[in-house]
Amino acid sequence: MIVARASCAWFTDGTPVPLSKIEPVQHRINLERGLVFSYDCSRNYEMSLLLHCRRTRSWARRGLLLGVLVLAFTASAYSQSAQPTSTPPSDPMTKDGSKDDPRFGSPEAEMRSKLAIKDEKKKYDEHVARAKEVSQIALQLSQNYETRKSFNNDDAKKLERLEKLTKRIRNDAGGADAVSDADVKDIPAEMLDRIKKLASMADELQKLVENTPRNVISAAVIDQANKLVGLIQHVRSSSR
Predict the structure, then answer these.
(1) Per-domain residue ranges of the chain
(2) Across residues 163-190, what is the average pLDDT?
(3) Are 234 and 228 within 8 A, CB to CB?
(4) Are strands 2-5 and 8-11 parallel, antiparallel or unpaired?
(5) CA-to-CA distance for 22 and 50, rounded, in angstroms?
C-alpha cells in the first residue's frame, strides 16, 4: 500500500516512492473515466434517437390510416349524393305559407289566433244582438201605432234607429247599401198593415241571423234585410 506524504509517498513497508511516478497512473485513471462517460453519453443519444424514429414511424402509420378512412368516407358520401332522389309529395300546409312561417306554432301566433277568434265571436254576438233589437223595436212600433193610430217623435226616432240597425245587419252579412225596386214591392196600402208586416219581417230577420253560423255569408239574411229597409223607408216617408 502506498501512503503519500509531502513530495513523496511510501509503501506500507516504509519504502519511499516519488510522486512523479504516481501522477501518470492517476492521469490514466481519469482518462479511462472520461472515455467511459463519453461512451455512456453516446449510448444515451443513440437510444433517444432510436425512440424518436420509432415514434415518428408510429405517427406516420396513424396518419396514413386516417387518410385512408377519410378517403373512403368521402367516396361513400359522393356515391350516395349521386343517386337520384324522388321528389316528396307536396304538403298542403305549405300552400298557404303557414308551415313555412317561422312564427307558426309559436306562443305569439297562438295568442293572436285566440284574440282573433275572441274578436270574431264578439262581433257575431253584437250582430245577433242588433237583430234582436230590430225585432223588439218593430214590435213596439206596431203596438204603439195600433194603440194611437199615429206616430209621435219617439216613434220617429225608433224608426230611424230601426233603419240604421237593419242596414248594419245587411252590411255585416255582406250585402250592398243600395235597395232595388224589387226589394220594396208588395207593400200594403194601409199604414197599420205596413207596421204589422214590418214587425213580422223584423222577427223573421232575427231568426235568420240567429240560425246563421259565424263567418258565413247568408243570402237569406241579406235579402230579408233589404226588404225590411225598403219597408221602413216607406213607413217613414208616409208618416211625415
Answers:
(1) 2-74, 122-239
(2) 79
(3) no
(4) antiparallel
(5) 43
**The three three-digit cell numbers of residue 8, written as one number:** 513523496
For residues 195 and 142, is the Cβ–Cβ distance under 8 A? yes
Say what the pLDDT of residue 21 is. Answer: 52
Q: Give me the mean pLDDT over the 172-176 stretch.
A: 86
**Residues 162, 232 contacting (CB under 8 angstroms):** yes
Query: What whole-number distance in Å separates Cα of residue 205 and Cα of residue 225?
Result: 7
What secondary structure does DSSP assign to the chain, as a single string? Answer: -EEEETTEEEETTS-EEEHHHHHHHHHHHHHHHHHHHHHHHHHHHHHHHHHHHHHHHHHHHHHHHHHHHHHHHHHHHHHHHHS--PPPPPPGGGTTTTTT-TTTTSHHHHHHHHHHHHHHHHHHHHHHHHHHHHHHHHHHHHHHHHHHSS--HHHHHHHHHHHHHHHHHHHHTT--S---GGGG-S--SSHHHHHHHHHHHHHHHHHHHHTSPTT---HHHHHHHHHHHHHHHHHHHHH-
The model's pTM = 0.54
Average pLDDT score over the chain? 77
